[in-house]
Amino acid sequence: MNTPRDWTDFSALDPNSNSVIATYFEVARALREESRPSRGGRKPWLTSLAANILGNDEAHNIAVAWLKSAFTASDKDLKKAQQFSQRLCSPRRLDKDSVAIFVDAWWIFSENQGGTLVADFLNKKRRERGFVDDLNFIKQIGGQLQDSANAEAVNGQSPAKRSHARDPGPETSLPKKTKVVNQPSKRQKRTSGKRKRFLQPDNISSTGGSVTNALVRPSRADIKLEGAEPGPLPVTTNAASEGASIQQRPHVLSDLRPHLPQPFSVGPLRQMASVLDTHEEVPPMPNWIMDDIDIEQTGDPNAASASIPDNALPTTGQSAPKPCLQIKPPLWAVSRQEVCESFDWFRSYQGGVYHANGFAKGYLLSAFAASRDIFHHGGQVIISHGGGKWESQHMTRGQVETHLADDQLAQDKSVRALIANYNNKRPLVLLIDDKYALFPFNLSASGITYAVLGFYFISGYWAEYQKASNERGRVVRYKFAFQWCSNQGIPWWLHPNASTTPSTHIDQGSIILYQHVKQERMCPRCQTHSPSVYTQWMCLKPDCSAFWINQHGKSPAEDCLTYDDEFLKLAPEPPCPYRSVDLIPHRPQPRPTDGITTDYVYTRGWRCPSCNRLACRSKWEQWECPSCGWSLPVQGRTRKASELRGIKMDVGFYDHAITNGSGIKQGPSVSYMSNGGQGHYQAFELPQQRGRIVIIHGCLPFGNVDADHIFEEYQKHASSVRGTMLTHYFSQNAGAPYQYVGGADNTIPFENAPVVSKARDLIQARLRQALNIQIEFNEVLSCAYMCKQKMAFHSDAEKGLGPIVAGLSLGAPALMHFRPCSRFEPDVNKRGTILSLILRHGDILLMDGSEVQQFYEHTVVPANFRIAATARLISPENAMDGSAKRAIKLEA
Ligand SMILES: O=C(O)CCC(=O)C(=O)O
């Protein structure tokens, strides 16, 4: 086989070879050539890549990435290829995305190489996976390369229909906004050196008879830049060399747009996906799909709507099972905690609407779809109720209470925020969970619980009555119509890679006409306007006496309302200030120059760059994806107590404040001796002999040396001693199981945590020295608070806890407040703080007496990075009783 000097020249390869891998060897050799010093300096990674490809069966995926970059000539693809190459050269294993690239590249490759090689390869793969029948890929691939008239023979469809899907044909048949590239773009003109060569027509030539086409795919960036009229691509002008039969056609946007599904015609990419379906390793969407969404202005909303049944209905009961997603959404998660800790657009642990500063930022579509909620135009128009006030059950003092559904009001926080978005034309982010019945794919089958759809603006809102099981039999619900912000390109779930299931085709021609102003009518009774949402107009203002009354003077029957077609058309869009990239969580610098990785941002989760999962930062030492194991080490320095302990507390007292009328008796400041020096303590007696709170200050001048060491050691060993993360808050339990942290499963023995033992020893020594209390604690909960984290009010009233709880404070100072428990003072306004203390580095806080926990609760608010080790004596029955739960809340 000849070695092509220019590895974009695939025509020089042996077209009869039945081993496609050989092609990659050629690519690899060319890559090696590229890495020669004479070509602009030795690139070691390229050299080792070449070596890898030659010696590693899997490595040809990388070559494919290069192939892709050659054909798209886009900087982005080039960068991807480099990234993947670098990854391969590192000891990490090849990730799944490379497989997806492989698929994608095959598609491109097939368009250039004709059918034989691709068909052989695909069928070989099929046979390896147990298929007995070979598919006629050649025909399909050939079909793609034919013009639309010839294509009819391939799948029996009318040329007109096919051409709509694959090749828009002459200019007149293109949707208005479609742009056509026929000139080298500014970007192309600017490109020099190796990249430039990819674009040169001379590189595409044909010497072998089986080469049926040679196309250079313009980059997506070029498509965006260029607005030229259709015409022959310059690259094709010289392509028909040496007698090869090369067909030329203008490149139009739809070529780069994902293939639209056709009932009986499946492009090679889809074929490939279905072939791979049979294999466990379903290729995920390449990572750059998110980037594609950013840059790809299809200008053709038809493309977006074609793959999903219009106005998909909930799949309940007998309905057909939903197809599985073949891709990973650009942002997805398994738990709500992951979403809230990683995704700034939705940080609501409970409600369905996340709002901040009076505006909704995120909206979760979940179960409880109200009547007439819809997912229309493939999800580009979604109508949903405003959330909140459904029938719910609450636990109040041990009793389950059912709260009946109630009317939503325009003043309700969530509704008000959504209306503010509408009035200010401010987009928000829609998310779905696996209980949202209207999404046409089965999320849970892919292990996905939450997925981010993207930015939407609110194109309308109104109120209506909804059936409910309350005494009136109905409630007022605010409904919101959300419309996809089209600057994001095609919604990801409409990408043809998303599903292997061809689905209903919707009328593509009409969508452009959908841009229209929503009709409204004035209510003769209240003189305000309501949109014409349904075929029968009604006043949709709940304050009006004519609310929800039709022209017959009646409330419409629940099931006989039909949306007005006009209303469902896409509304004119306000400008969207966000791009898809704004959805991606910011990742803090893993190696900050000052070495400080204890700031709040380091508590946030991340989006795994490999599989797009939103994941918590559950490990001290790194962000790690629980799905694919991808990790990003956090390389900070150990912080010294000296840099934190001096932080001033902005409060009006030096060490403590007792609220007037609390009944607390303050004891004198008493000194005590320890090996390192002298310390002092102060006790606060609670009223009615409910116990005492004592603060034992660290010893000066040298007594805090122990605490200094422990603080540093905690940080050094955090990765090895940490247990399972509870929230975005590093905590770990040692010794006896503590139900609050999940019992035995999340507890490690003291032997495995020497630093925790040291903390326990120091606490015990101080109790002995200062208060003459001899105690051997059998449990220590260690918590690391990053900057801005705090522990909300709670009490340590778990069954089996001994009466003495003592905690060592390390690092930054913290404020600790005590207040009466709700049980004794249900009115939260009367439950003010009775005692506040400043806990400083080396201090030990003792809560002495079980009633301290029964009658009071406490909160801790550190001023910056702080570690606390709280020691308890837990009886064995507590270890056995898995039901006990402490009502503790960790907050940031
Ligand atoms: O951070 C602290 O010092 C207190 C921790 C605490 O309240 C607890 O573990 O229950």
UniProtKB/TrEMBL annotation:
<dbReference type="GO" id="GO:0006307">
    <property type="term" value="P:DNA alkylation repair"/>
</dbReference>
<dbReference type="GO" id="GO:0008198">
    <property type="term" value="F:ferrous iron binding"/>
</dbReference>
<feature type="region of interest" description="Disordered">
    <location>
        <begin position="298"/>
        <end position="321"/>
    </location>
</feature>
<dbReference type="Pfam" id="PF13532">
    <property type="entry name" value="2OG-FeII_Oxy_2"/>
</dbReference>
<feature type="binding site">
    <location>
        <position position="785"/>
    </location>
    <ligand>
        <name>2-oxoglutarate</name>
    </ligand>
</feature>
<dbReference type="InterPro" id="IPR027450">
    <property type="entry name" value="AlkB-like"/>
</dbReference>
<dbReference type="InterPro" id="IPR032852">
    <property type="entry name" value="ALKBH2"/>
</dbReference>
<feature type="binding site">
    <location>
        <position position="858"/>
    </location>
    <ligand>
        <name>2-oxoglutarate</name>
    </ligand>
</feature>
<feature type="binding site">
    <location>
        <position position="794"/>
    </location>
    <ligand>
        <name>2-oxoglutarate</name>
    </ligand>
</feature>
<feature type="compositionally biased region" description="Polar residues">
    <location>
        <begin position="235"/>
        <end position="245"/>
    </location>
</feature>
<protein>
    <recommendedName>
        <fullName>Alpha-ketoglutarate-dependent dioxygenase AlkB-like domain-containing protein</fullName>
    </recommendedName>
</protein>
<dbReference type="GO" id="GO:0035516">
    <property type="term" value="F:broad specificity oxidative DNA demethylase activity"/>
</dbReference>
<dbReference type="GO" id="GO:0051747">
    <property type="term" value="F:cytosine C-5 DNA demethylase activity"/>
</dbReference>
<feature type="compositionally biased region" description="Polar residues">
    <location>
        <begin position="202"/>
        <end position="213"/>
    </location>
</feature>
<feature type="compositionally biased region" description="Polar residues">
    <location>
        <begin position="148"/>
        <end position="160"/>
    </location>
</feature>
<feature type="domain" description="Alpha-ketoglutarate-dependent dioxygenase AlkB-like">
    <location>
        <begin position="729"/>
        <end position="863"/>
    </location>
</feature>
<feature type="compositionally biased region" description="Basic residues">
    <location>
        <begin position="186"/>
        <end position="198"/>
    </location>
</feature>
<feature type="region of interest" description="Disordered">
    <location>
        <begin position="148"/>
        <end position="245"/>
    </location>
</feature>
<dbReference type="InterPro" id="IPR037151">
    <property type="entry name" value="AlkB-like_sf"/>
</dbReference>
